[in-house]
## 1
Amino acid sequence: MHLSIPPSINYLTGHIDAENVVCKETTLGALEGVFANETQRAASAQDQVIYQVEMLPAQHAEGELNFGVSHIEPGSIGDELHMTRGHIHQRKEQAEFYFGSQGEGLLLMQTEQGEVSIEKVFPGSVHHIPGFVAHRLINTGNTRLSALAVWPAIAGHNYDFLEEVGFNVRVFRSSTTYEVVYMDKAGE
């Protein structure tokens, strides 16, 4: 019998400890068209890391699951809070789970018909993202927001949702905390 040590997760930071962790950084320069104020985004440091994803090597077979962690840095572009690009699954019927690890933020979910729901993300929070729902994480705090994710290997990611439909909600820094603003189709 062979005893092996599996990957582990630090639940307080969301850091995955494994030999073969895949890490991806998304900089401000890669987020053209994501923030409401494109002029402000373009004038800011393009190499600034907005979020990172750590994940175990991707599985691809039917019935398999993938596991990863998104880390969104605190801050804003203009007054709009840092967020992930957001996506809907290529296989739209596939659901996903998020688990809050550190920091505070929001999980924005939107159906293709434009119906929006928002959940607070905090250490220990559990979020079921149904199929046919686009989703993004937004950091509303002053520290890194981290959320663990488990999704079907066959789900895929469709980032064209932003251009095809777009999110109807934006989250801006306010004098006390944050403000959720519903946008019309023109983005105003």
## 2
Amino acid sequence: MKKIEHIGIAVKNLEEAKATYELLLDEKPYKDETVTSEGVITSFFKAGESKIELLAATNPDSPIAKFIEKRGEGIHHIAFNVADIEKEIKVLEEKGFQLINKKAKKGADNKWVAFLHPKSANGVLVELCQDV
């Protein structure tokens, strides 16, 4: 794993959260994107060498809506940049990590993504990211 790619933060109201992070980071998001397959709309901010991804549900059955209902707003996941996501998935599975995705899928911000189950990483949802 090369570096922390981004930290995902689940929010109820994307516009309010964007205003907060614009003040905090003193810049506007560089990209908003809807990921229909996940029922989420995202907004990305640069934060030094890493990024902040705000995630808001587009429907009440989406994973983000369920997360917020159960845990409230806050850190949803931490994403790591990897050179070869398919290789990394195999290596982590061999090491005993529980995978949510055994194959990479297209995610936000022009990335291939795969997730490790929080039970495998001390309660933290881990996302692997590779540029498409």
## 3
Amino acid sequence: MTLHNQILEALQFLSTPEKRDFLPYFFKTGKGQYAEGDQFIGVVVPDSRKLVKEYWQKATLDDVQEILKSEFHEMRLVALLILITKFEKSKDEKEKKNLVDFYLKNTKYINNWDLVDLSCYKLLGRYCFENQKDDILKKLSNSENMWEKRIAIVATMYHIKKGSHDLTIELALNNLNHSHDLMHKANGWLLREMGKKDEEKFLNFLKTHYQNMPRTSLRYAIEKLDEDLRQDFLKGRI
């Protein structure tokens, strides 16, 4: 049995009817929605992670490619988590670059917000930060594809954790008024995370841009602020 089929069989064993019914609704798979046609087996992320621990060493990149092409959302997630584990365990810089190149060549399969958010900063964000390759994220930020734009901004989570915030600001501004709510949420979320590390820079950003930000981005960004200050931003009193 191929590794693809082993993992598929294991996921089907872990499936529950409740999750199989709920996840397509939660991830907006209906006609005209952002994940139209995506298929779910019905497995929660912690159970997918357990499979990754069992299979990541056995999986070649050819195996990962086959798994990543699956019609099933959970299969694609397992493939991405295997990539991350290989990247984090590797001490070989050439192998790490190969894993990053593989990720970038397969962004068309990273086609929902959880697949983006659970994969990009631990692999691509870390690689770009450690190798001064932020041009990769800037290029993705200018893509016509929304998921690539989201990969770019969420990948800067690694930069934020390392105390580097300028790229987050640059990429948030680049797509500040993108048409899709999922980008508004991502931009607001990353700005909020930046604010936890550098409140002064965060507040200066908000004071300059909050009146032109989509409401969703603003609400996400200011969620953790003191309530009086939060209301001042919401009501335009700054």
## 4
Amino acid sequence: MAVSPITGSQAAHTARVDSQQVQNKDKAEQKESAEFTSSRTELKAQSNRNIVEAMFGGGQQGGDKAMNVLYSEIMDTINAALGEEHAITPDKVASQSADYWSPENTAGRIAEGALGFFETFQKQNPNMPEEEQVDEFLSVISKAIDKGYGEAAKILEGLQVFDGSIKDNAQATRSIITDKLEAFREAKLGPSQQEGGE
């Protein structure tokens, strides 16, 4: 039995059919991949919402965890700016009393941890006059505190919990830290000329 030869138009038609089948298969695979990616993204978003709800969902404990994030970010930036040897880490403060994460107590620990580096800073800058040492040191730690506060706020905003009492407590903490740094400067150098002139 003789097989008739394939003509050029038959070969072109077969190639088009094969090409269309490949394209259709590719499109189907891309659609499945997109659906899978979409499903994974939705599952991840739901999982993140569940984690946020578990961590911050209402009540005092959620506020404590937010203050822990704030504290950790600020202390990390201070430690990075000034050195790790005197670092106060979250591990050291894991299970503490109920008011441990109040704005006053959190600000106190941050200020105390940051100001504890002053002696080291003085030793590193022995030729600098004392007023310049104090001002330069406060400038360095204030920038680190601002950076840490900003990073903590971004984290909490990303988790959609940086509002209400959490935001109020974070802002109160930052304000108290500023007061403590000003009190430190005044203790070292006396009242500033502006205050003395009033």
